[in-house]
Design goal:
alpha/beta, 6 helices, 5 strands
Length: 154
């Protein structure tokens, strides 16, 4: 399968502009934040957190503690700006390329409803394994496309 160029990739910025987005998905995000906080509870003071496919940065900015470094990675520059506005450090990247992050520097990584948008999921998992410190934590969510709640929300 040929890799699409950047102009062919779907932009998700419009998804976050939907008037019903906040109302319909807020409860899903609340549960995700609770799960992530639990998974990241034992990360060290000043942890480096990385959200691959950060969207608007809402979840990363909510779970990052004041002393953590929150790095928001996405291809969409409009979404990265929204994350910057929420206090994250933006990192423009292509999911299917090598991550521009040094080996073993990330304490906690997230992929929230984004891995299904990668052409090579195994590659990105290998990349996250490379950038995670020993004992680092990776949390992955995929959309519940088959749930009644998801169908109603869409």
């Amino acid at each position: 399968m040929a890799k699409p160029n950047d102009q062919q990739r779907e932009s998700f910025a419009g998804y976050y502009d939907r008037p019903a987005y906040d109302a319909l998905f807020r409860w899903i995000d609340i549960r995700k934040k609770a799960i992530i906080r639990g998974a990241f509870a034992d990360l060290p003071h000043g942890a480096v957190l990385f959200d691959l496919g950060c969207g608007s940065g809402t979840i990363l900015s909510a779970i990052a503690r004041p002393h953590d470094t929150a790095v928001a990675g996405d291809l969409d520059l409009r979404l990265l700006q929204r994350g910057r506005d929420r206090g994250t450090s933006p990192l423009g990247l292509d999911f299917d390329s090598t991550l521009p992050i040094a080996d073993r520097v990330v304490d906690g990584a997230l992929i929230i409803d984004a891995i299904e948008h990668t052409e090579f999921p195994r590659h990105i998992l290998d990349e996250l394994h490379r950038v995670l410190r020993p004992g680092g934590v990776l949390v992955i969510f995929t959309p519940p496309y088959d749930s009644h709640a998801w169908i109603a929300a869409e």
